[in-house]
Each structure stands twice: as structure tokens, then as C-alpha cells.
Amino acid sequence: MLAVQQLEAGYGESVILRNVTLRVEPGQVVCLLGRNGVGKTTLMKSIMGLLKARRGAVAYNGHELTKAAPGRRARSGIGYVPQGREIFGQLTVYENILVGLEASREKKAVRSIPEEAIAKFPVLPAMYSRRGGDLSGGQQQQLAFARALASKPDLLLLDEPCEGIQPSIVDDIRDVIRSIKADGKTSILLVEQSLDFVKSVGDYFYVLEKGAIAWEGGFEDLSDEVIKKYLTV
Question: Which residues form the ABC transporter domain (predicted)?
């Protein structure tokens, strides 16, 4: 599915990621952990092509994407919910979801918002005419999810989906991730600070430390020692 090999990336003269290698297999929920500022968002942007790799490779379903534009990566079946949501505040909820269809692999003539994109967020249809900027943080996060799901991605990148939202919406997002996982059609690469959250949904875990993978393993390997060494502030 997704293979990142010895990736190096950064901003200006600063190198943030150093020889990062990770994989996401079909149907997996892979969680990327680490303290603030270690490069998690930089890695997500590099996978999406929003930040060019200096070295290394990104491949998806056997196709080389290292130099591909973000649009091509999205149309290849990768959905992205960025940190901070980045919904379009002046567009309506309906228009925001339509934007997600630009990454659809279906012919434009037959494009329509798929039922599965909004079925997981039943509150959204009632808000179709509202501007995205008028929604609460939790509602905007649900909208960002629906926008990403509109293109029916095979892989979903989620960058801090629970950041700054109320506990009830966090529970809803957990249920959505579990539902996607149960469907078995879409893999997920998840960046999240809450250990309880990632433990409740994750299959495999990577820990970033100073821009490099410092540890990886399954749920049973995520010991208190690992948590204390790499994640405790």
C-alpha cells in the first residue's frame, strides 16, 4: 500500500526528517507518535507532496510518487485531513464536500457526494447551506473528514484529528475510524497525541524522535518503558 523509504525533508536549510522508513499495509490503522516538534506533520505533508522530499522515496500501490504533485497523489487514492482542518470558511458545507470530489477517480460527469462520505456524520446534511467558517471546531473536523472521504480514498492520512475539539466529537471520530477499519476498504495513517485514543484504534505504531523513527511495533510491544522514553513530556 504505502511505502516510505529513507525519506529526508525539511524547510529552508533545516532538515526535519532523517531517513524515515515506514509502511502502511491494506486495511491497517498505523499510528505515528512522538512529542511536539519531532516532525510528524512534516512527514504527512511530505507523503502528500505538499513538501518536497530531499532524499528517499514515497511509493503507493507500487507506483513511485516521490516527485508527483499533490493532486496526482490525491487522485491515486490518498485522502488527507490536515492538522487544523483547513476547511474553506467562505464556502458552504456542501461546497466544501464537493471540493473533495476533485480528487475522485470517477468520471466528472457521474460525480456526486457518495452516501458513505456523509453517513458517518449525519449532522452535516442539515448544515449544507451554512458556511464552513461558522461551524464549531468539532463540526469543522467532521466536515474535513467528509471532504476527504468524498473521493473514496484507499488510504486516509489523519493529522491530529482530535486536536482542540470537545470529548463527544472525539468519541464520534473514534467510532468513525473503527467503522472504516471494520469495513476493511481504507487504510489509515494517524497522527495523534492521545495514547488512549491510538491504543483504541491502532494496529501498528511508529515513534518519531528528532525527525527519525526511534521505535516501531505492535500494540503488545507498546510498553510503559517505550512510552516513558519517547512520549512522556
Answer: 2-233
Cα 75 to chain centroid distance, Å, stands at 15
Among 129, 56, 55, 48, which residue's Cα sits nearest to residue 96? 129
125, with CB counted inside 10 A (0-12, 13-18, 19+), is middle
Contact at 8 Å (CB) between 206 and 22?
yes
Task: State the amino acid at position 120 in one-letter form.
Answer: K
Q: What domains are there in the chain, each with its CATH number?
A: 2-87+154-230 (3.40.50.300)
CA–CA separation, 113 vs 43, rounded Å? 29
Question: Concatenated DSSP letters for 31-94?
Answer: EEE--TTSSHHHHHHHHHTSS--SEEEEEETTEE-TT--HHHHHHTTEEEE-TT----TTSBHH
User: Which residues face 4 on adjacent strands?
Assistant: 22, 58
Name the pTM for this structure.
0.91
- Convert the pLDDT of each residue in 114-128 to its tens digit: 787 788 888 899 999
Q: Compute the distance between CA of residue 66 and CA of residue 57 in angstroms, rounded to an integer.
A: 5
